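Sharing a chain and its predicted structure for anyone who wants a worked example. Both blocks are below, sequence first, C-alpha cells second.
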Amino acid sequence: MNWDYVINAIPRFVDAAQLTLLLSLYGVVLSVLVGLAVAVCMVYRVPVLAALCRGYIELSRNTPLLIQLFFLYYGLPKIGIKWDGFTCGVIALVFLGGSYMAEALRAGLQAVSKGQVEAAKAVGLRGGQIFRYVVLPQAWAVALPAVGANVLFLVKETSVVSAVAVAELMFLTKDIIGMDYKTNEALFLLFVSYLVILLPLSLWARHLENKMRRAQYGV
C-alpha cells in the first residue's frame, strides 16, 4: 500500500464523493415524491392511474438499473432525446427508487386504521386535511424503516452511474486502477468514502426509527 499516493488522491475522492452525494440527493428526494404519488394512487384506487402505477412498479423492480440507464443514455438519442450522464443517472435512480419507495409508503398508508380517519371526519376535518395531518404522519412513521433502507440502497446504486461516464466514486476508482495501476489504494479509498457517506446515514435512520418508536409506544 502506497500511503503517499493515498494521501495525494484524497482530494480527488472528495470531489467524486460530492458528485455522488449530489446524485444521491436528487435521486432520494425525487424518489420519495414519486413513491408517495404512486402509493396514493394505488391505495385510493385512482381510476386508470392505479393500474399504470402497478405496471410501473413491476417494470421498474424487474429490470436492472444498468439496463434502464443504458436505455436512457444510449437508446433515447436514437429518437432525438439526448441527456447528459448526470441527468440520465438521476432519472434512472428515480425510476428505480420511486417503485421501492412506493411499496414502502403504500404499506404505511394501509397501516393507518379506518378508525383514525372516521375520528378525523367526526371533528370536522376535510379530505386533504385528514391526509396531511392524520394519515400521512402515521404512514410515514410505519414506513420509515423501509424508507431508510431504500435511501441506503439508492446511495449505493449510484455506483452504477459510472457506466455512463459520470465521474463519481466508482468512476474515479476504475480510472485510477486503469491509469495508475493502484488497485489496492483505489479500492481502499473507495471503501472509506462509502463508509463515510453511508455510516452516518445508517445511524441517522436508526435514530429516527427509535425516536418514532418512543413517540408511539413511550419506550
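Comments welcome. The longest helix spans residues 3-43.
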